[in-house]
Design a protein that fits this description.
single chain, about 250 residues, alpha/beta, Rossmann fold, 2 domains, 6 strands
Length: about 250
């Protein structure tokens, strides 16, 4: 049976994959900072919340066992994603960003020396902008004693009707690696989004008209619309399109 430590666990996607593949495992610990995600994880996987290591920056790796088979870690993507601040792994002052929490996962990997560690993150980690930082990730894992195999995989190539690209890094401990690992081949997608949706959904999951109106007419949405409108107008005016509405917005 596989001994597993799950880091940045969320609701446990890696664990659900093991379940779906009918691979038996023993969860040694999971690690999730958000209390609501932790509660969901505990209920979904039927484990006590006492197994949660909590804030990864405060985990004492020396208290963890060294007979671990697998560590999974989808470290935060907020500072790497195209939709985020794109600071990378480090702030300007050299401190770690949220994505820099990779180094806390590394610290735990270095101590426990699992046979395999699997990381998942956004495709942008492999972009030209972050090439040096991606090299740091790979080099750090190699120095920790691992051979690394990585590839960008798209969910739609593996049975899920969603165009979702992610980088996966498979790190195999050098003393047991025989250079035989290969990523799975894509296969034909036979499902559409409708196949994944429930036919009937309880009304409690729908927003009432009152709540929808609150969202539509909230101060945040109004300010967002004004800012977006102003941005568009500035562009138009820069191109000498004298739209009266733009002039009014920018007064």
């Amino acid at each position: 049976m596989i001994k597993l430590i799950s880091l940045f666990s969320g609701i446990g996607a890696f664990e659900k994959s093991l379940d779906n593949l009918k691979i038996k495992y023993e969860l040694v610990n999971y690690c999730e900072f958000d209390k609501y995600a932790s509660k969901a994880y505990s209920l979904i996987h039927k484990v006590p919340e006492s197994k949660n290591l909590g804030d990864i920056t405060k985990v004492d790796e020396t208290t963890l066992p060294k007979d671990i088979d697998l560590i999974t870690y989808g470290f935060p993507c907020q500072d790497i994603s195209l939709a985020g601040n794109q600071k990378g792994l480090f702030n300007e002052d050299g401190t770690k960003t949220r994505s820099g929490l990779f180094f806390d996962a590394l610290r735990i990997i270095e101590h426990t020396q699992p046979k395999v560690a699997i990381a998942e993150n956004v495709k942008n980690l492999t972009s030209k902008k972050f090439s040096k930082q991606f090299d740091i990730v790979l080099q750090s894992l190699e120095e920790a004693g691992y051979n690394n195999y990585y590839q960008i995989l798209n969910a739609k190539d593996y049975g899920i009707p969603q165009n979702r690209e992610r980088i996966f890094i498979i790190s195999i401990r050098k003393d047991i690696d025989h250079n035989l690992f290969e990523f799975p081949e894509p296969f034909e997608l036979k499902k559409i989004l409708k196949d994944m949706l429930e036919d009937e959904v309880d009304e409690k999951y729908y927003l009432s008209d009152e709540k929808i109106n609150k969202i539509k007419y909230s101060n945040f949405q109004q300010e967002k619309t004004l800012i977006q409108g102003g941005g568009i107008c500035q562009t138009l005016l820069a191109r000498d399109y004298k739209d009266p509405k733009c002039v009014e917005v920018l007064k």
